[in-house]
């Protein structure tokens, strides 16, 4: 799996150091999918082993107590009025403002690595404001350069039992996974209300999804688009880790943590290896550029010398001095 598009520094921690670090879970999902409720359940389960960060500037109530809260740094309502923005624009701007201070967050996290095993991050309900914004990319990249990081995509199982909602969610998850290049866990949430069996079948067997689409009785452009997309997504499903959970009852948290463990290993096999290769490539490229510059400099000096000998050294002291200096 190739990965990273942000800055690569040769002063990054080694794999050995990163391996001993807590796993960072970035919790994403469509509005109302149950991210916050599930996070509360997860953090209750993990207790003092986890460190919680809230990145949703517009949330009014949280059922958990975050250790770092974007709302302590950025006043979303003020951003709205000062920059004359609507709700979504204000979320993106608040995230942008917060991302400029993200180095301080990383420093705090660094100081906690010996006492925590998980860093859990809640993101705004307006999924695109985090996943498709520059600040979302900066935050995700910064975290993944210091900690084994995974994306947890929370799905509302009740709504995903409709073929069109299922497809929208999978397309979103797929694009986010390929954009971030991080391992992804799909948490099929709200299983206290609806079994996730049918969704798993659709992921495992393309023909069952086709059958479900036939059952809608529609032969529309939308269905033929869904059919083509389903074929394309087939490969994506095979790379996913998925589990069934309930933010309401806590069911499935253990299964989720097993998925996280395997996603963590995938992080080192895919993302981290690729990142190191890129870093080595960049250093090697830097060396090559240096060598090339040196060659050019030597050639310039040679050319200069040739010119001077052709001129018979008539250019006087100044040029001689330059030559000596070179
Ligand atoms: N029955 C049931 N309800 C749930 C579950 N998870 C969340 N809910 C309900 O779904 C609604 C949305 O839950 P939230 O946790 O606020 O969802 P969210 O994704 O954080 O919402 P946004 O931040 O607005 O995107 C709330 O009414 C929750 O009580 C679940 O596992 N089972």
UniProtKB/TrEMBL annotation:
Q: How does it assemble?
A: Binds to RNA polymerase II.
Q: What does this protein do?
A: Small GTPase required for proper nuclear import of RNA polymerase II (RNAPII). May act at an RNAP assembly step prior to nuclear import.
Q: Where is this region: Disordered?
A: 301-326
Q: Which InterPro entries match?
A: Gpn, Gpn1/Npa3/XAB1, P-loop_NTPase
What organism is this sequence from? Triparma strigata
Gene3D superfamilies under this entry?
P-loop containing nucleotide triphosphate hydrolases
What CDD domains does the annotation carry?
GPN1
Q: Could you say which EC number(s) this protein's record lists?
A: 3.6.5.-
Q: Where does this protein chiefly localize?
A: cytoplasm
Q: Name one Pfam family in it.
A: ATP_bind_1
Recorded family membership? Belongs to the GPN-loop GTPase family.
- Keywords associated with the record: Coiled coil, Cytoplasm, GTP-binding, Hydrolase, Nucleotide-binding, Nucleus
Q: Name the GO cellular-component terms.
A: cytoplasm; nucleus
GO molecular-function term, one example from the UniProt record: GTPase activity
Protein's name in the database: GPN-loop GTPase
* Transmembrane domains' residue ranges: none
Entry keyword annotation includes Nucleotide-binding: yes
Q: Where in the cell is it found?
A: Cytoplasm; Nucleus
């Amino acid at each position: 799996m190739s990965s990273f598009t942000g800055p690569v520094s040769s002063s990054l921690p080694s794999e050995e150091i990163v391996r001993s670090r807590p796993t960072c879970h970035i919790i994403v999902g469509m509005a109302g999918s149950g991210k916050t409720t599930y996070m509360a359940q997860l953090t209750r389960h993990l207790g003092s082993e986890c460190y919680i960060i809230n990145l949703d500037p517009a949330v009014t109530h949280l059922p958990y107590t975050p250790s770092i809260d974007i709302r302590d740094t950025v006043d979303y309502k003020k951003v709205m009025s000062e920059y004359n923005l609507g709700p979504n624009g204000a979320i993106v701007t608040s995230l942008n403002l917060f991302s400029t201070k993200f180095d301080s967050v990383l420093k705090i996290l660094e100081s906690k690595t010996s006492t925590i095993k998980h860093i859990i991050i809640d993101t705004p309900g307006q999924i695109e404001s985090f996943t498709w914004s520059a600040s979302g990319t900066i935050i995700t990249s910064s975290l993944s350069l210091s900690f084994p990081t995974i994306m947890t995509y929370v799905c509302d199982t009740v709504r995903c039992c409709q073929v069109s909602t299922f497809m929208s969610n999978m397309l979103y998850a797929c694009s986010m996974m390929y954009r971030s290049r991080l391992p992804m866990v799909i948490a099929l949430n709200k299983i206290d209300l609806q079994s996730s069996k049918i969704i798993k079948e659709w992921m495992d067997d393309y023909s069952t999804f086709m059958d479900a689409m036939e059952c809608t009785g529609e032969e529309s452009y939308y269905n033929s688009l869904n059919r083509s997309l389903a074929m394309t997504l087939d490969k994506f499903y095979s790379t996913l880790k998925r589990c069934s959970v309930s933010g309401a009852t806590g069911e499935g948290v253990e299964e989720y943590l097993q998925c996280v463990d395997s996603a963590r290993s995938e992080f080192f096999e895919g993302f981290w290896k690729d990142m190191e290769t890129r870093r080595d490539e960049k250093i090697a490229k830097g060396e090559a550029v240096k060598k090339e510059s040196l060659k050019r400099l030597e050639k310039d000096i040679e050319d200069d010398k040739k010119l001077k000998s052709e001129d018979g050294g008539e250019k006087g002291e100044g040029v001689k001095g330059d030559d000596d200096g070179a």
